Amino acid sequence: MLRRAVFSSFLLFLTPSVFAKDLPSGAINALFEEAVSHDTVPGITMALGNDKGMLMAKGYGFADVENHVPMTTDHKVRIGSVSKLIATAGLMRLAEAGNIDLDKPVTEYVSAWPADKPVITLRQLTSHTAGIRHYKEGANEFLLNESYPDIDSALAMFKDDPLLFAPGTDHRYSTFAWTLVSAAMEGADASRDFRAIINEEVFAPLKLDNTVFDDQYTIIDHRARPYTVLEGELINAPQTDHSYKWAGGGFISTPSDIVRFAVAHVASDYLKPETTRAMFTPATLNNGETVGFGIGWKTGFGDYKQRKAYKDNASALALMDDIPDAVMHSGGSMGGITMTILCREHKTAVTIVKNVSGEDNADVFLLALKTLHFAHTSQ
């Protein structure tokens, strides 16, 4: 594999980038240059912006290791479950238009969903409190490389499986819940399929020109190569098809697009203030207990502070405490790991993506926290 050190001097010139005048770009560059110095990290692309515009956007390392293509701000990468935020935006546009009700039984919109199951609402689906399962252990569903022609065929993967718990009584993260959300969006709209809804309600009004469905056979400009790590070695990621989970993890994008998308929630009239307040309010179980998700968005750093990697890391905990009004989402896909954090107080967002999965040397969550910290201290 090519060593990053050989290229570091001219990557600064070859990589299109954006820097705010007062941002400590040298310190931020140092963070990311160190992150891509590991042989297991092919490339990282990042963006930082606020309600006044883009503060910084840059690529580091390689979008394509074999062909020596440097990562740039134009490269589209797999954003994994950050896709759920895009689906959420489309859903809430339908809700604001009066076309869908988050508290009605999902069977009112999805005829293919079994009527004999306990009542599930979209509000429960979007907060992961509906009891829908996640990837089935040992079934390699995360590595699926089968094309699903429509959402009903994707629903068939899990619709007959028992719920993990009675809806509203517990919390369990589920990507498949979002396949059901997308089916409900189609059923509620009647005239448009999920792809058309997202294109017309999210991509077009927010001018997300570099965010697309991750069709594996379509030629997509500036698509970065996906990688993974096996037994400590960087390898090409196996081919996967995401047509069974468009809403849950099926988009590729640039960090700049995702940052603009996130900031639009707090600095534009794209959605009504009461809508975003509902999205960013932690959901409540039947017993009154709150969970760490609102509608689509993860609310606060609660569970991050309890994770083994961070609970004894005083520096990381301090950085989290410095952003008390944060909402976010991470993303994990075959060949991409993503972190998006929106600081509502400062109307500032950051997105970090590395085009590799199964890799532990570059922590995109810590990189995102540190980048936001630099943004706050420079204001």
Write a compact overview of the structure shown.
With 379 residues, the protein is of the alpha+beta class. Helix content is 33%, strand content 17%.
Order of helices and strands: HEHEEEEHHHHHEEEHEHHEHHEEEEH
What sort of overall outline do the alpha carbons produce when their principal axes are compared?
globular
* Percentage of residues assigned to helices: 25-40%
**Gap between N and C termini:** 40 Å
| Radius of gyration from CA coordinates | 20 Å
Portion in beta strands? 15-25%
Task: Give a count of the beta strands, DSSP E runs of length 2 or more.
Answer: 14
Total number of helical segments? 13
In words, what does this structure look like?
- It is a single chain.
- The protein has 379 residues and is of the alpha+beta class.
- The chain has 13 helices and 14 strands.
- The chain has helices spanning 4-14, 25-35, 83-96, 122-126, 151-155, 176-189, 194-206, 246-249, 255-267, 273-279, 302-306, 314-321, 364-377, and strands spanning 18-19, 43-50, 53-64, 69-70, 77-78, 212-213, 227-230, 233-236, 251-253, 298-299, 326-333, 336-343, 348-354, 356-357.
- The strands form three sheets. Strands 1, 2, 3, 4, 10, 11, 12 and 13 form an eight-stranded antiparallel sheet that branches. A three-stranded antiparallel sheet has the order 5-9-6.
- Helix 2 (25-35) packs antiparallel against helix 13, helix 3 (83-96) runs parallel beside helix 6 and helix 3 crosses helix 7.
- The radius of gyration is 20 Å and the shape is globular.
